[in-house]
Amino acid sequence: MPEPQTTVLVGTTKGAFLVTGQNGRDNWRVSGPFCDGWPINHVIGVGDTLWAGGGGEWHGAGVWRSDDMGETWDVTRLTRGMMDDWAANDPDFAQTIGWRDEPLPFADAFAQIWSLGYAHGTLYAGTKPASLLASTDKGQTWNKLEALTNHPSAESWNPGAAGLVLHTIVTDPTNPQKLWIGISAAGVFATEDGGKTWERRNRLSNAEACGHHDHPAAPANGETGHCVHNMMRAPGDEDRLYQQNHHGVWRSGDGGRSWDDITDGLPSTFGFPIRVHPRDPDMLWTLPLNGDSAGRYPPDAAAAVWRSRDGGASWEAQRKGLPQDSCYFTVLRQAMAGDTQSPAGIYFGTNSGSVFASIDEGDSWSEIARHLPTILAVEVVENAD
Length: 385
Hints:
The protein is mainly beta. It has four helices and 28 strands. The strands form seven sheets. The protein has a four-stranded antiparallel beta sheet, with no helix packed on it. The protein has a four-stranded antiparallel beta sheet with strand order 4-5-6-7, with no helix packed on it. Strands 8-9-10-11 form a four-stranded antiparallel beta sheet. The protein has helices at residues 82-88, 91-97, 146-149, 207-210; strands at 5-12, 15-22, 26-34, 40-46, 49-56, 60-66, 74-77, 112-119, 122-128, 132-135, 143-144, 165-171, 179-184, 187-191, 199-200, 228-233, 241-245, 248-252, 260-261, 271-276, 284-288, 305-308, 316-318, 336-338, 346-349, 355-358, 366-369, 375-383. The longest helix is centred in the N-terminal third of the chain and has 7 residues, at 82-88.
């Protein structure tokens, strides 16, 4: 059978881009920018339908949708931005941008959409400041899951450097009632009743062994650091989760109820993304950076994706095809993705505007796009060719 067409969905500070492989995973072509140049924090796809979430102080928050694989896009605006204030007081400006004085569903409750997730007919969106929205009509209308917003711990949630953001949405492929989310800097939360109730899940499995660290985002008081950066569920029946947080890489075998440190063997405790193999729950990748206050670039300015084949018990650096001199880029929390082919493909984007791809599970890499705006997110959609 021919390989499906693989498209890398790229969210940037200046719109969304598509990087599409021709003849399988080769001869990549870039199209875009889409979404009228909005800052796009996350792009996901199901079949030919794509969603892009973003916004900011100027535009307000919104979700863009394309039903024809990026040929055309429409936006559902959710909150107001500065442009609404300008347009309300300047009819000429309002006419120029096609503005209409219409109420928006969430007024000024949040500034951006930071993350998207889709499963079992429901589209989810995480916001800044942190809340979780859900839509059952492909993003036309939305409701807020108030039980998370009103969680008893909410008053103690502290913003990370990027603000108080709900940046990670993890679904269960077989159970629509189960959902995990990551908030910086509040940690991991889970629901098993479709969002009616939420449990905070930051407990260390062995607090005495893990000890206490002085860094405010590190393990303390029997819990992992609350500044979770990214999280992914492993394939299979077990609720195995992996996370990269502000102070290490962690694994949970019980749906996040307890966490074990698996950072040993990596060159740094700091990094943003985590990726798990689509079929092998023991294979995962991460991209360590040199430290949160040391520049946030690859250790020794030499890029490497680190792979584990044994659930984090050991790690190996994968460098072939990646820059090994004067490499100072950053790879952000949502900027690593994978496809489902065999061997699995792995993709990441940099804040310097490059997209790198490996179609051999990380053994070798190639740059498939360059000179894009700052890359905020990378995902993959696969369609029959």
